[in-house]
Each structure stands twice: as C-alpha cells, then as structure tokens.
C-alpha cells in the first residue's frame, strides 16, 4: 500500500525534501506538497534583485516541474489547519490524511509588531520588497540610509550586513553621497559564529564607513526617524529593515510550537515530539550545545541539509533499504562585500565548541556563490 507523505511549504528545504522523496520512493509513496506559490525565489539572490544584477524571473523555480512525476501532487493552497490527532491537514478546499508529515512552512514576516514599520520601511526579504527597494534606490539621490534588524531570530543572519556593504559600494560607484548606519538588537554581528568572526564582520563595516549600532531595539518607526528603547532616535532618508519573524499561525494552533515560539526538533533526525511528524528549516528551534547563541540561526543551508536527512530516513523506514542518517549541523554561507567579491563562512554549528571558518573576501567565493545559484535553479 502506498504511503501518504505530506510536505507543508516548499521553500528551499521543503522543495529539496519533496524532490528527494519522490525520486527515492517511486510508487511506494504519494508525496503531496501544499504550497500556495507557483514559483519559489532563491532567498540568497534577493540582494541581486535590489541592485539590478538579476531580474525577478531569473531567480525563481517553477514548482509545476515536480508534478511531472506520477507520485507527486501539488496543492496550490494555504494550509488552514494541521490536526495531529487525526493525522490530517486541511486547506481552503480540501482535507487529506497523512502517514508522514514534514512541516517546512518557514517563518512569517510580522512588520506590524513594530508600529509604523510597514508604512515607512523597505525590506529585501521578499521578492516584491526587493523589487520595490530596487526602484527606490534608483530614485534616491543621497542622504542618511538606515539598515535595521528589528528582532531576533531572523532568517539569514549575514543578509543585513551583506546588504549594507553592497549599498555602500553601490552608492559610491553612483557618486551619491550617503551615510549608512546599521542597528540591531544583537550584541555583535552574526553571533552564532562567535566573537572572532563577529569582529571580522565589524571590521568590514568599519572599513567602509558604516556605523554599527549593536544592542539597539526599535520600538516604533515614524516618517523620518526610528525610535528605540530608552527614547533615543535615528533620523533617516531611506529605511531598510529586517521585519520581526514569527511562526505561522497554523503551526502554533496545532500545538507544534513551544515556549521559544518555534517547533522544537531532535537535532539529529529533525523529529518533533509527535510520531511521524518532522520539521525542518526556519520554522524549527534547535538548541545549541555552546554559549554563543541559545538556538541555531535560521538559514537556508541548514534547511537543505536537514531535508536530505529527513528524506533519507523516511525513505529508509518505508523501503527497509539503506541506512539512517544524522544531521551534523554543518552550514556555510557567503557574505558578499562587493559586486564581484564575497567572503565565505562555514562550520559545524552543533559541535562544542563550534568548528567555524572565515574565508576573507575574494573573487573565488563570489564565483562559488554564482555556481550555487545556478545549481539550485537547475
């Protein structure tokens, strides 16, 4: 009898898991993907949209290609309810049961948690937001630019630092006079990477004249200034922020999220406390065994590694072939510093202490980033 596997959400992790499961299981399983979007953008390419280095259509993957396989079904609707007791999922128009459930719904942006943010701030964390910011930069003639991280945790810990560095180069080449400041509630940049790498990132910001404001939490945004806890404020002509993130409502209502606000999972196999229910990617909370940060950061590279482990283990449990795998917490990301150069961070984030590496910016790592984009789109 065919096993019903339901994958909720089709970002980097969900897409990878669904692809692997459908290939490995063939007629032994039906893989149902629930995802309202027809196309999925590559998050790491969104800054390239901002600066006009990519067109929106060139960084998206069409999910319909997956449905060419006989064992894949795509439900292009929102998830309305997850019922763990009845092992069922409800969408806008239908309800179906699962034998194995993979939750990869990611993190939602919640700009309304900071009054005024949605009205006055740009963001590059969505394709639409990146496109609007691109247009705003073309019309911007100079002045005070403020880049802000509103809350932690947030997706892709290096992204706002990368954007700030690219902004500085972009404005300098355009001969537009600007002052760039970056605020964050974090104690230092990319805290999960530890103090040594954090100082490397701080030095990059300082070398480009970007003023860094750590331990700074926004309370509200007005037309021309951001107000912080304690009453201080920062004036801006252009504001770009990372909005607060939260778990999707259906995840919380299903009882999957706990005190952290996210879904706790076993770090090695990504299982939740519920039988045959797994979660990967940004929707999860994974405690770290070291003191740099309490939880693993949210990053697409982690979702991809987790997807491979979960897909392998589900397939092994169904076919009885192969060996179970464990996720090792390895991750890597690029920190692009200019149009043609990137730094590179990698390491085992679940080891104690974490084994981390920082490779200075070079053309080599930029080309590596381009290659990874091409591989994903292919």
Short précis:
By secondary structure, the protein is an alpha/beta fold. It contains 9 helices and 24 strands. It has helices at residues 12-25, 46-50, 117-120, 127-139, 159-173, 194-207, 249-253, 300-319, 363-377; strands at 3-8, 29-34, 39-41, 60-62, 72-75, 79-83, 88-91, 95-97, 100-103, 108-109, 143-149, 178-183, 211-213, 218-221, 225-228, 233-235, 238-242, 245-246, 263-264, 277-279, 284-285, 330-336, 342-348, 355-362.
Describe the secondary-structure layout:
Layout: E1 3-8, H1 12-25, E2 29-34, E3 39-41, H2 46-50, E4 60-62, E5 72-75, E6 79-83, E7 88-91, E8 95-97, E9 100-103, E10 108-109, H3 117-120, H4 127-139, E11 143-149, H5 159-173, E12 178-183, H6 194-207, E13 211-213, E14 218-221, E15 225-228, E16 233-235, E17 238-242, E18 245-246, H7 249-253, E19 263-264, E20 277-279, E21 284-285, H8 300-319, E22 330-336, E23 342-348, E24 355-362, H9 363-377
Parallel strand pairs: 1-2, 1-9, 2-5, 9-20, 11-12, 11-17, 12-13, 19-21
Antiparallel strand pairs: 3-4, 6-7, 7-8, 10-18, 14-15, 15-16, 22-23, 23-24
């Amino acid at each position: 009898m065919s096993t019903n596997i339901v994958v909720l959400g089709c970002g980097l992790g969900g897409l990878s898991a669904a692809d692997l499961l459908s290939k490995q299981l063939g007629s032994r399983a039906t893989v149902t993907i629930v995802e309202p979007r027809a196309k999925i953008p590559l998050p790491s390419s969104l800054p390239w949209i901002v600066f006009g280095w990519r067109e929106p259509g060139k960084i998206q993957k069409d999910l319909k290609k997956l449905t060419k396989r006989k064992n894949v079904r795509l439900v292009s609707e929102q998830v309305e309810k997850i019922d763990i007791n009845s092992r069922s999922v409800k969408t806008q128009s239908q309800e179906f049961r699962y034998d194995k459930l993979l939750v990869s719904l990611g993190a939602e942006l919640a700009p309304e948690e900071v009054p005024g943010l949605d009205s006055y701030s740009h963001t590059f964390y969505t394709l639409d937001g990146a496109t609007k910011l691109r247009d705003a930069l073309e019309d911007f003639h100079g002045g005070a630019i403020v880049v802000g991280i509103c809350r932690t945790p947030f997706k892709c810990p290096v992204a706002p630092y990368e954007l700030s560095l690219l902004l500085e180069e972009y404005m300098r080449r355009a001969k537009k006079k600007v002052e760039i400041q970056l605020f964050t509630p974090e104690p230092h940049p990319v805290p999960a990477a530890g103090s040594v790498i954090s100082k490397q990132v701080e030095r990059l910001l300082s070398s480009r004249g970007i003023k860094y404001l750590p331990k700074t939490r926004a309370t509200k945004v007005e037309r021309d200034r951001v107000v912080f806890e304690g009453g201080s404020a920062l004036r801006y002509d252009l504001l770009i922020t990372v909005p607060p993130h939260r778990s999707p409502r259906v995840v919380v209502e299903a009882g999957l999220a706990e005190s952290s606000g996210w879904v706790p999972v076993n770090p090695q196999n990504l299982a939740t406390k519920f039988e045959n229910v797994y979660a990967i990617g940004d929707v999860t909370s994974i405690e770290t065994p070291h003191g740099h940060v309490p939880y693993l950061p949210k990053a697409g590279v982690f979702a991809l590694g987790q997807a491979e482990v979960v897909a392998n283990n589900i397939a092994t449990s169904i076919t009885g072939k192969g060996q179970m795998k464990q996720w090792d917490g390895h991750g890597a990301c690029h920190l692009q510093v200019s149009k043609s150069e990137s730094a590179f961070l990698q390491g085992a984030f679940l080891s104690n202490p974490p084994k981390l590496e920082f490779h200075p910016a070079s053309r080599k790592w930029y080309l590596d980033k381009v290659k990874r984009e091409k591989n994903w789109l292919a």
